[in-house]
């Protein structure tokens, strides 16, 4: 859950904002000349609305915010796609270049309470300025203020809470956790109250370190364990106190007591062997683009759990906090990953790429740290991990993730397998393979490629010195057009997809060397008509077990049968 506050004033800016669309360049546009002629909802991708389909350019948004004169304040943007420029009273206050990355914007001080907020969201590719998005990935990248915006008013001339992070420790069964309370303008000796589940816990320390953090370990008085079957949550709360012991700023977060481990070839959750069964999922619905309603998220999780899934990979970008909240509450394990899709040398050699990737990686961990559902961090899906030029960014990403969070596993999905040069870096080896689909033309029975390919992958990983690491299939699948059932049962039929997925699930899950399977993918999702993905019927990636309206294809029953049979 995004950290919540009761003492400081927070205001959601969801609602109708003034809007106009233009095709000028971001660098030549003049704020004063923008004629706002429409009103659209925030959050929402403008190009998912019927008025602006496939519009590439700048979505110009305007609203008014109210900040008491003299009060420090910031805006929390959960996602502005792709480049977001934020102006307050005409002053450029921030520019963010990853469309899925949450970011904070300080509101400049003013004597006026009423402030004009303008957001320019440019959804055109601009490799020079924004290498993380490169160009056409195999999923449509919408534009606009696609996730929530919140205004925070901070206490005047005092320290305030930047973040509260709870890490379950090896003694998690007895309720042992580490607490990191991160402060802005920390006082030398900070007074604060700390409680878990409403019970105040006396804390002796109060001396922030050089970065403004206070750390301590403590215990949950009445610990209950989090797992997919028992998604129990606890609540931690910190309150900063003034000289008179009065609380003036606070932060509240939810967390879960659980432990994920990789030992030898296996995964363990809370000490029990764990087999991952699940889906890759894009945050997408045709009527809403990437701003999926929470009810749809709820239904998606229920559809997956109803099929016997315990796992979802949030492909291929920061997850929406509302989705993660639901995974915490309903009990679905998550792989969350940083934006990346198939980039190669051009991107890795871009002078800004490493820094932009690092910034986005850090914001992902910062935002999602307390979700017990997340058991692994991922990054750079199918990106040049067979080439030396990618090594520095892969190494740095792993170091950063380990430094920020020692309690979760690290992985990336590779399509190279035999040629991959980064497998030494990860805790779990994750491979994307498409036997029976790509490269399966002119094969008499393409499904027969599945089992031998899995054997070959295992052989390659083991023989290269990684026999002691867990191995999973992170993508496998085939396209099926919803409703296309045909006696030939050939490519694109529901029958072919159902056969292939069933064979994949059986071949992986029946093999003790593999620790799980994550099918590509949950529901059909829009892609581009150009670039890498030319040739996708309907300009959708149709490998969903459900279509984009969540209507089940034949694969639904086939996979469900196998997954539920494993419990
Ligand atoms: C890759 C990629 C997915 C999707 C898939 C496919 O493995 O990671 O995003 O593009 O291929 O359908 O080909």
Describe this structure in words.
Helix 1 packs across helix 2 (321-330) and helix 4 packs parallel to helix 5 (391-404). The chain has three domains: 9-153, Sandwich (Jelly Rolls); 160-255, Immunoglobulin-like, CATH 2.60.40; 260-564, TIM Barrel, CATH 3.20.20.80. A hairpin with a 5-residue loop joins strand 19 and strand 20. With 567 residues, it is α+β, with helices and mostly antiparallel strands. The mean pLDDT is 96. Helices cover 18% and strands 30% of the residues. Residues 138, 315, 381-382, 415, 432, 475, 520, 541, 543 line the site of alpha-D-galactopyranuronic acid. One of its GO terms (biological process) is carbohydrate metabolic process. Keywords: Glycosidase, Hydrolase. Residues 164-258 form the Glycoside hydrolase family 2 immunoglobulin-like beta-sandwich domain.
Structural class: alpha+beta
How much strand content do the residues show?
25-35%
Mean pLDDT: 96
The description of the largest β-sheet is: 9 strands, parallel
CATH architecture of the largest domain: Alpha-Beta Barrel
Please give the CATH class of the largest domain. Answer: Alpha Beta
Unreliable runs, pLDDT <50, ≥5 residues?
none
Q: How many distinct beta strands?
A: 34
Order of strands across the biggest sheet? 28-27-26-25-24-32-31-30-29
Oligomer: single chain
Number of helices: 8
């Amino acid at each position: 859950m995004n950290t919540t506050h009761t003492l400081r004033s927070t205001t959601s800016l969801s609602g109708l904002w003034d809007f106009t669309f233009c095709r000028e360049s971001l660098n030549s546009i003049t704020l004063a000349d923008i004629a706002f002629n429409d009103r659209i909802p925030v959050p929402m991708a403008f190009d998912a609305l019927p008025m602006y389909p496939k519009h590439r350019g700048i979505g110009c948004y305007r609203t008014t915010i109210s900040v008491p004169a003299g009060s420090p304040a910031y805006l929390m943007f959960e996602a502005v796609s792709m480049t977001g420029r934020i102006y307050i009273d005409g002053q450029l206050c921030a520019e963010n270049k990853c469309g899925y990355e949450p970011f904070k914007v300080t509101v400049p001080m003013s004597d006026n309470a009423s402030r004009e907020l303008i957001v320019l969201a440019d959804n055109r590719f601009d490799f020079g300025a924004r290498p993380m998005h490169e160009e056409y990935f195999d999923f449509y990248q919408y534009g606009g203020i696609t996730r929530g915006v919140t205004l925070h008013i901070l206490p005047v001339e005092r320290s305030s809470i930047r973040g509260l992070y709870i890490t379950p420790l090896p003694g998690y069964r007895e309720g042992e956790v580490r607490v990191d309370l991160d402060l802005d303008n920390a006082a030398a000796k900070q007074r604060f109250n700390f409680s878990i589940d409403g019970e105040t816990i006396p804390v002796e320390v109060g001396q922030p370190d050089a970065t403004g953090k206070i750390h301590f370990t403590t215990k949950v008085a009445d610990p209950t364990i989090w797992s997919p079957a028992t998604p129990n949550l606890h609540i931690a709360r910190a309150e900063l106190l003034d000289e008179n012991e009065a609380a003036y700023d606070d932060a509240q977060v939810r967390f879960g007591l659980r432990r994920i481990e990789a030992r030898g070839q296996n995964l363990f959750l809370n000490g029990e062997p764990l087999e991952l069964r699940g889906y890759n999922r894009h945050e997408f619905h045709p009527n809403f683009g990437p701003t999926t309603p929470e009810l749809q998220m709820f239904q998606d999780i229920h559809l997956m759990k109803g099929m016997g899934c315990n796992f979802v990979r949030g492909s291929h970008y920061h997850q929406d906090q509302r989705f993660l909240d639901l995974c915490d509450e309903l009990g679905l394990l998550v792989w969350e990953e940083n934006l990346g899709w198939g980039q190669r040398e051009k991107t890795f050699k871009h002078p800004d790429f490493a820094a932009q990737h690092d910034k986005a990686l850090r914001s992902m961990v910062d935002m999602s740290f307390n979700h017990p559902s997340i058991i692994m961090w991922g990054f750079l899906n199918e990106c040049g991990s067979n080439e030396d030029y990618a090594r520095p960014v892969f190494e740095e990403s792993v170091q950063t993730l380990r430094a920020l969070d020692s309690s979760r596993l690290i992985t990336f999905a590779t399509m190279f397998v035999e040629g991959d040069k980064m497998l030494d870096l990860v805790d779990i080896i994750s491979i994307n393979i498409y036997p029976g689909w790509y490269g399966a033309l002119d094969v008499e029975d393409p499904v027969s490629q599945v089992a031998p390919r899995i054997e070959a992958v295992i052989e390659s990983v083991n023989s290269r010195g990684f026999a002691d690491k867990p191995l999973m299939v992170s993508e496998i699948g085939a396209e099926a057009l919803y409703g296309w059932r045909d006696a030939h049962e050939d490519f694109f039929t529901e029958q072919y997809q159902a056969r292939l997925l069933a064979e994949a699930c059986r071949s992986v899950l029946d093999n003790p060397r593999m620790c799980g399977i994550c099918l590509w993918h949950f529901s059909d999702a829009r892609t581009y008509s150009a670039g890498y993905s030319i040739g996708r019927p309907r300009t959708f990636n149709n490998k969903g077990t459900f279509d984009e309206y969540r209507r089940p294809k034949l694969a639904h029953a086939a996979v469900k049968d196998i997954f539920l049979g494993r419990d």
